[in-house]
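User: Before I run my own analysis I want an independent prediction to cross-check against. Here's the chain; please return only the structure tokens and, at the end, one sentence I can use as a sanity check.
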Amino acid sequence: MVPMAIRSIESNSLSAFLSNGGISMQKRIDLANQTFGRLTVISFFGSSSNGNALWLCQCQCGNKCIVDSQRLQKGFTRSCGCLRSEISRSNIKANNQTKKYMGNPKNFQLIDRTNLVASTLKRSNNKSGVIGVSWDKTAQKWVARLYFQGHLVLNHVYVHMEDAIAARKAAEKRYIVPLQKQYNQTHQKNQLN
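Assistant: Structure tokens:
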């Protein structure tokens, strides 16, 4: 007995349907020469692991990229990434808080891949009053953190706020203070020249 779902399939596609283990193989829609956002499809590139067609696309900016057909057709991918960059740039320029700090070299005290300003300024949402020390509501404990050269060098929880503050200050002394001294020496030399 043939299951109800298979009865409605034409006889010539029934054998293909059954030979694929009952999985329907849809014909690929040719997207070549179609434009989606800033992307123009050049040619079929292959299939992704989920079976969707992959397409080689040319972006208006000149870059080429490979995009899943579903992402193209649904509008999830509209460029090679240049559109996101432009929107981000526009949002940054429109943000008054960001504008206030733009062009001030003191905001970019980058020494040995570490932004000293970001490491030493208290955030506006800081509740503890100490940079890098916060209250974890879930654990009901104080957390001390320090992010240095792309790594969390301090990420510990403490029962007492004083212990978290002491840990943060010790980490700053070990990691940040030497860089501040290096920055100050370099900055003084540059001013003398």
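Sanity check: Strands lie at 35-36, 39-47, 53-59, 64-68, 110-111, 114-115, 133-136, 141-148, 151-158.
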